[in-house]
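Final report, results section. Input specification for complex C-07:
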Amino acid sequence: MYQFNYVRPTSLADAQALLAKADDPKLLAGGQTLIPTLKQRLAMPSDVIDIGSLKELAFIRAEGNAIMIGAGTRHYDVAGNADVKKHNPALAYLAGMIGDPAVRHMGTLGGSIANNDPAADYPAACIALDAKIHTTKRLIEADEYFKGMFETALQPDEIIREVTFPHPEKAAYEKFRNPASRYAMVGVFVSKGPWGVRVAVTGAGQNGVFRVKAMEEALAKNWSPDSVASIKVPSTDLLSDLHGSADYRAHLITVMAKRAVAAS
Amino acid sequence: MTVVSMTVNGKPAKADVEARTLLVNFIREELGLTGTHVGCDTSQCGACVILVDGRAVKSCAMLVGQAEGADIVTVEGLAKNGELHPVQKAFREHHGLQCGFCTPGMMMTAVDLIRRKPQLDEQTVREELEGNLCRCTGYHNIVKAILAASEDMR
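Structure output:
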């Protein structure tokens, strides 16, 4: 790890001020991606601003037809929360499948979507559930937020405060895990709600999470696994690596979509 | 440099260390508690699992500063007054180890698991151990030991 200046602000306002002032800062939430990245010397921030212990970012509130989750909320707490399990069980299920128990005790919702790893789980939930991402500066629609592999609409001096997940009528997430890393080779989140029908895919896209419009249209007409069984996503823009070819991932998308609809 | 203070196995610990110090290195090198192991250093193997404020975490994926003010338990803190913890007893009784390298992390994960899920079955234990690797592949007895410990602690 390279040297850096470590600071642990006691309020979001302080964190915001430090972020604006520092040379080349990085926000640290749970650190489950950032710390391994620092260890490999793949990042060299001047300042690490630790917002992981900010109480004002760690909460889950059910209000009206939505659940608000603070950006600093740990995956473990989302997975076990009674309101999330009641109103949005697919989201609780997704959170309980991230990494392993020790990782879930540290990793946060905000950290996951700020990093936007192409194989992360939460981006699929945000897109499929028409989530609203509230930052220290504005509200960003999930559809406008994820910009590509490890890229988001966040500005350098912007911090995610919370994410609003409206309750779905139906939803499910199915993930085909890489047997070694447990990351999604392909993860498909399907949903039906006030926003219509959505199908979001993670783990497979060269540009990160994406929607499959053809599947959405078919499911809007008939919500059944058969509706998506013959829809194949072109492999052109899919990831191809030692874990699986683009064609293999394309095949998995259809399989996971079918399973997700069946599980919803 | 950064000054950190926390409680480790019931005793106060304070030091002035580089900010980039990992929690596991602080525990091993500053405090001399070498029961916590570093296996993979890539957050996959779980040999470094400890309890931070009661929750199992990978101490090789935490900066020491993140543990400021925390209550930490390492494998050395499990036994009380010369008496082994039920998880330690069960690991010995059921031979839940081969080379022993992964054992501290396995036991800390087990303590956390039994706290969260007092009613355990074999399938659950196997799933919950997904973040702990035993390169001797000695899972069978590890699972047996955890099930026995959870019975014992009920």
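Residues 9 and 77 of chain B are 5 Å apart (CA to CA). Chain B has two domains: 2-77, 86-153. This concludes the modelling results for the funded period.
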